[in-house]
Amino acid sequence: MSQDMIMLLVKALGETTYMVFISSLISALAGIPLGVILVTTDKGHILENITVNRVLGAVANAARSTPFIILMVAIIPITRVIVGTSIGTNAAIVPLTLAAIPFVGRLVETSLKEVEYGVIEAAKAMGATPMQIICRVLIPEAMPSLIAGLTITVISLIGYSAMAGAIGGGGLGDLAIRYGYQRFRGDVMLATVVILIVQVQLVQSIGDYVASKLNKR
Amino acid sequence: MIKLSNIEKTYEGASGPVHAIKGIDLHVKRGEIYGVIGLSGAGKSTLIRCINMLESPTKGTVVVDGQDLTAMNATELRAARKNIGMIFQHFNLLSSATVYDNIAFPLNLIGTSKANIEKTVAPLLELVGLTDKRDQYPAQLSGGQKQRVGIARALASNPKVLLCDEATSALDPQTTKSILALIRDINQKLQLTVVLITHEMQVIKEICDKVAVIEKGVIAEEGTVLEVFTKPKATITKEFISVIINHDIPEAFKDAEISSTPIPDSSLLVRLSFIGSSADEPVISGLIRRFNVDANIIYGNVDHIKATPYGTLVLEITGEDTDIENSLKYLQERNLGIEVIGYVARHDHVAR
């Protein structure tokens, strides 16, 4: 493999990492509150509000049922407004993030629901405010499970980011399609696949390690 | 200290409204240990949750330490709850926090400084005997130790009332005893008012001053533990007590024919119950010394309800009919509970 090819691979790896990092970060920042709201506004919970719960749930489901490749194309106008262009790594971050937010939201919801209601009740009995219950009971208690959920999110985003490459988003997916597929460069194809596998393995291992470190059960 | 007036609680169940509590009045004095006993579904859990408004009653008022909790807004209620500690059947500790941090939790909520937290938590660890476990996580503790953490946590905010929601139901009998001893200990040391709910009469007997028996959302019977134990009125109370105090006919006489009137050549079965000082009186030796009868102890049990001795004896008295009559009179004149079970043909039970 030529020096140039290796440079291209390194650049693509950098782009993928950048896309995944930024979209993971933003989707976690938005998805965790979404998950918290989905749980706490549910029936019988600390901030019960059925209307908010139903509306948010429906929006999250709608976003999740749209295939990513379609979502990516469908929101091009929005991407243009936010980033100024619909091509490139920054442009790819918009659909990636939008797709991941409801995904994170649902994962967070599942994690938080695993926290025994008795513990929340105990905090209530001690005079905790809803905000204190969320920050000092729900989230810390669900932390190992939240980390596991975020690991899944990052891995899914690595996969999606390859798809974003197909419509000009850059990154490893883009490289694999343009060189590996369209120019019949088997070695490039193989190299991108290997890098992606290593990346996913790495994320999973780190996620597992952190989750087990935090798990005190 | 705690005054519940005309509490009603109705839930919207799947098949129409469920009346969990139908008008309960409860008065708990300062420093008292008040037990509420009932079967599951009787409404006792709902009742104790009404005291700190984890469940808001549909009707009625809850007054704790002179404050009407039912009239408060959310902020006032949170402040009031700091005066009411609570412990739970399943402990409900934070699994992600150490023993120390669990106990410090209520103090962290109100932003107590680290130094002051240490000052409060260290003696509490000492009190519940877990000083060496301070940096362990709940998963590393036994059930009894977890409940001790629960108790220390409930005490951290220096409450005036402690609510115990089936606090010993998940523990083995021995651990139950030590937890109850701890509760009694803090009740005396800290002059804490305790309300506990349970389905075990043993728990009531062990530490309560007063007891309310609740059935189907109403109080079936109420009084001091001694009163309720020795003179139960409601059927449900008798059932609860029968677990501890045997009111059945002794096994050997199960199949014998028992007559309520004297029959020739028979012996008399009586059940005697002793309370307090009467338990010290040598009744049986007095009986056989005075009359020409034999007294055979069929069943006997002496126990304590808190510090008061309480016992039951079933006697078979044999002798001449007139001697039996006189013995009965003698026993009836003594300061003890007596119940004539009946007359059985002599050795009828042995013959078989």
Briefly say what this structure is.
The complex is a heterodimer of chains A (217) and B (352). Chain A is mainly alpha-helical and 217 residues long.
Major sheet: arrangement of strands of chain B: 6-7-8-3-9-10
> pLDDT average of chain A, as an integer?
93
Query: What's the β-strand tally of chain B?
Result: 15
State the CATH topology of chain A.
MetI-like fold
Give the overall silhouette of chain B. elongated
Largest sheet of chain A: none
Assess the beta-strand content of chain B as a share of residues.
25-35%
Helices of chain A, by number, come to 9
Note down, in words, how this protein is organized:
The complex is a heterodimer of chains A (217) and B (352). With 217 residues, chain A is mainly alpha-helical. Chain A has a single domain (3-214), classed as Orthogonal Bundle (MetI-like fold), CATH 1.10.3720. Chain A contains nine helices and no strands. In chain A, helix 7 packs antiparallel against helix 9 (186-214). The radius of gyration of chain A is 20 Å and the shape is elongated. Chain B folds into two domains: 2-242, Rossmann fold, CATH 3.40.50; 251-351, ACT domain (Alpha-Beta Plaits), CATH 3.30.70. Chain B is 34% helix and 32% strand. Chain B contains twelve helices and 15 strands. In chain B, strands 6-7-8-3-9-10 form a six-stranded mixed beta sheet, with helices on both faces. In chain B, strands 11-15-12-14-13 form a five-stranded antiparallel beta sheet. In chain B, a hairpin with a 2-residue loop joins strand 13 and strand 14 (308-319). In chain B, helix 3 (99-109) crosses helix 4, helix 3 (99-109) packs parallel to helix 5 (143-156) and helix 4 crosses helix 5. The radius of gyration of chain B is 25 Å and the shape is elongated. The model of chain B has no long low-confidence stretch (mean pLDDT 89). The interface between A and B is medium-sized, with 21 and 28 residues.
